Amino acid sequence: STPAAIAAALAAGAKRGLLIKGGAVLEKLREVNAVAFDKTGTLTEGKPQVTDIVAFSGDEAGVLRLAGALEAGSTHPLAVAILAACEARQLALPAARQAVAIGGEGVTATVEGRALFLGSPVAAAKRAPMPAERLAAIEALNADGKTVAVLVADGAALGFLAMRDEPRADAASALKALADQGIRTVMLTGDNARTARAVGRDLGIEVRAQLMPADKQRIVGELKAQGLTVAKVGDGINDAPALAAADVGIAMGGGTDVALETADAAVLHGRVADVGAMIALSRRTMANIR
Ligand code: ADP
Ligand code: MG
Predict the structure, then answer these.
(1) Of the four, 1, 7, 86, 114, which is 20 to 30 A from 127 by CA?
(2) How many degrees, rounded to 5, is the angle at CA 286 between CA 278 and CA 5?
(3) Fold category of 49-164 in CATH
(4) pLDDT, mean of residues 34-40
């Protein structure tokens, strides 16, 4: 019977790490003709490495230890990179008080009596003036596909860290396979436009950059308003609203608990190609039922 075929497909998917939360989601997946991907942790490994540390005042280790203090409670991929760099240098981290993550911007906290911010250059520029030559140095790193986080203390920029996150091994081929099936793909990212374009060029995908979480949600809505059936794939860090706004929200393997809760489906093994596999499973199953 029909329910039996759907149950069998859900079970077969689960066995391959394609978690689909029920028959209604499986049916909806068949209609998907646009997929919006988060960048960090979804199209990329989400395991950035610190590549450069620049101190405007003090030394590199001083910038790194304050950055580490700010990120101590964060699970953001950039936080993980910064904490790994602190550990590699065996830095003792001061305590951070009132740490708050600001989606799409960065993190704030009080450390050693100073009000600190660490985050995107755009967000940092709202809190501290950035001379043109510093912005140019940051832009050069961005053009190399690196993401920069700027450290601000009491309204003055102290320095920055650059990090690089490699695309997932199968990302380019998986995106091409989706395009070959007539499925539109777009990358939505909070990262800056230069970094995002460098990654998008390598992967062959349309790029929308410098987005706040609410922008990602809005763009998903715009695609739906164009008559597209939209899947949104993300790790859920800052992105739960866009996952919820999509026709099908898909959490990417190793994502956050909030992503797994919000999402309609999940690809558990961190393969971009599994998004296409999930759509194919739905199309096959529904074709056999009808
Ligand atoms: P993405 O869309 O690539 O997942 P996010 O929306 O998670 O990006 O973050 C957007 C930008 O905000 C990052 O590129 C970074 O500059 C900044 N940012 C966000 N959270 C943090 C954090 N915990 N530490 C440093 N920077 C952050
Ligand atoms: Mg994110």
Answers:
(1) 86
(2) 90
(3) Calcium-transporting ATPase, cytoplasmic domain N (3.40.1110)
(4) 95
What is the Å distance from ligand 2's center to 237 Cα? 5
Taking the CA of residue 121 as reference, the ligand 1 atom at the shortest distance is: 16
ipTM of the complex: 0.95
Average pLDDT over residues 179-200: 95
Residue among 177, 145, 132 nearest 275 (CA): 177
Domain locations in the chain?
2-45+167-289, 49-164
Nearest CA to ligand 1 atom 15: 120
Rounded Cα distance, 77 and 40, in Å: 8
Asked if residues 233 and 65 have their Cβ atoms less than 8 Å apart, the reply is no
For residue 255, pLDDT over 70 is answered with no
Which helix (H) or strand (E) segment holds residue 158: the answer is: strand 156-164
Query: Distance from the CA of 13 to the center of ligand 1, in angstroms?
Result: 32
Topology of 2-45+167-289 in CATH? Rossmann fold (3.40.50)
Strand partners, 36: 186, 232
Q: Nearest ligand to the C-alpha of residue 44?
A: 1
Place of tokens 């390598």: 202
CA gap 71, 60 in Å, rounded: 16
Prediction pTM value: 0.87
Rounded to 10 degrees, the C-alpha dihedral 179/274/225/219 comes to: -100
